[in-house]
Amino acid sequence: MTPPSASSPQPASPAPDYAALWSSALRLHPIYKELAREFVIDAPSCAGLDEPVDAPDRETVEHAQQWLQEMDDRIQVHQLRQFLQTSSLVDGDGLIALVQHFLGKKAHTDAARDKIDFLLVQYFSQKAPSELDDNGADISYVAQELEPVLGKVELKAPVWLNALDRALEAARRCRSLDDLLHGGVLEQGRKAKAQAGDLFYLPVALVAFTRFGYLMRRAFFRLMLADLNNILDGLTELEEKGVETIDCRRAQFSAQEPIVRLRMICQSWKVMFQAEYSSGQPLRMLVDLRASVDFALGRGAEAESGEKAAAATAAAKAAPSKPAAQKAATNKSESSPPVANKTVAGKPALNKPAARAAGAAAGVPKTAAPAKAVPATAAPPKAKFAVTNHEAPEFEVSAAVPEWNPEDGPQPGKKK
After folding, report:
1. How far is residue 210's CA from residue 143's CA, in Å, rounded to a whole number?
2. CA 21 – CA 14 distance, rounded (Å)
3. 0.85 surpassed by pTM
């Protein structure tokens, strides 16, 4: 439901509290300087903050505010996320100072809104106990923990915030990281935030979006770690079958990727993915690497056979009376090798039988690949993480991806 517009007249702005503004600027200055250093951001100089005084005049305070605004324009949301999740420079009080700084801005830009959204989630995540479960993180508990930032909040939530609960329920139904990243769940939250407009800044809305971001982050980590563990289990199973390399081109690796190296990369990813959920390049690799391992283990063969049978039945019903010549041509094509499986809609179909043969030729021992594939009519072996086509829709990797040499280790994820 789209929130109503905020059309009520705004009260006159109070006179600025220069002492409070100066105190905030002094608190934020070292954080912004370190951010600029880490991300090689061209930071303008500010003599008043570089060599602060105890009682600055009005002009010095205003110049410090201009400096902060220039830095806000230069610092991107994803840089703030990465910095705060990897740096020990900013504690709880620093996060409060950052939130109050952005909440005090008169211009409600998308960038400021996204920074506030992240900062509140980060603050709550640091305060929340590790044993807190999803049911315990209700709106009243979140509001209580945010009191140092937002004060006492009236918890009568408007109806339009129910969209967040629907998105959370959809996230709970996700079976894999692919489902979460590409099933439209994250877009529901982004849409609700964008449609809120200025109503996003209502205290109860800030609490609701903080709860949403926290629970979505938990869902992301839960699915990400499950995918990584499933990949590692799958690699172990392949090694037990004598397989040493698998075809991982769909995940931007090689056609003969050593399992030993894949295992090392997965272990490093467990450390690297300590960031808010995103759709950065390493996450796309993770999604596709799980699909590659599943494929190497022969998962989904039964579903693939069922799809072909269903397609053939539908085609027969649509055209029951083929001309004899056309029927003969069809029979001929059915008896020939499945060349059509090489592409789907003009794109490589790495999850088809032709790709399975290519993967075997790329380095999988003969006794481990197609020769031991499960027949379509037989029950597949019990799998810890079998993914059907319905549960994990096909994920297409963008062609415009940065080059990355796996020998150099995983690259940081890019966030949208």
Report:
1. 9
2. 13
3. no
